[in-house]
Amino acid sequence: MSQKKCPICSMMSEVQNHREFFAKWVTCDFCGSYIIEKNLYNTLSLKTKSCIYYYLTENFTRYQEEQVIPHFHKNDNWKDGRVEKKDIISEKTLLKRYPKTQEQKTDMILLNIAYRLKFQSDVFTTYFSIEDAAIYPLFFIDDSYSRDSLSTQLNVTLENLERQRYVMHELSLGDNGRIYTLTATGWLRVDELRQKAKKAN
């Protein structure tokens, strides 16, 4: 077992080789515990990372209560479903969860931010550089376009959130860094989405 960056959110986590599968077993404070096959681990796109991050945060409490581990893969001959204490989930299934409309994307981003912040007084920091990919999965940044477009996508997304008064720019950190917080309007929308999810379940 060793301390490495979580392949999904880039926070420090415990990563070890799985004994039964050609896979990594990751334990992350933000994402929880999950297994990821090496053929997916070695080819993760930002789009897939975004879908995995949203899936993990959406199901974090349920997995803890049920003591179930999600197992992500890209093997065409595997079937999705519960096997003992593992939820087998393919990359194809995950990518179907990628937001299809701007409204859906905005709502999913707000839930991601709220999960990361935990408290209303917390802030989050963004750096508009290609190298700083840690924040990208929260905002569903799509790397199927040119690599140079990543920071532009993030900037446009944050501008849209500010325009809708969901986030507020608190402070600039040099040329590339910015500190934001969720506004009261943003937290209100998060509460609405969480209540809607509870009723659906």
Set out the fold topology.
Blueprint: E1 2-5, E2 12-17, E3 23-28, E4 32-37, H1 38-41, H2 46-66, E5 69-73, E6 81-83, E7 86-90, H3 91-95, H4 102-117, E8 124-127, H5 150-163, E9 167-173, E10 177-182, H6 184-200
Parallel strand pairs: 4-5, 5-7
Antiparallel strand pairs: 1-2, 2-3, 3-4, 6-7, 8-10, 9-10
Helix pairs in contact: 4-6
Task: Give an overview of the whole structure.
- The protein has helices at residues 38-41, 46-66, 91-95, 102-117, 150-163, 184-200, and strands spanning 2-5, 12-17, 23-28, 32-37, 69-73, 81-83, 86-90, 124-127, 167-173, 177-182.
- It is an alpha+beta fold and 201 residues long.
- The strands form 2 sheets. It has a 7-stranded mixed beta sheet with strand order 1-2-3-4-5-7-6. Strands 8-10-9 form a 3-stranded antiparallel beta sheet.
- Strand 3 and strand 4 (32-37) form a beta hairpin.
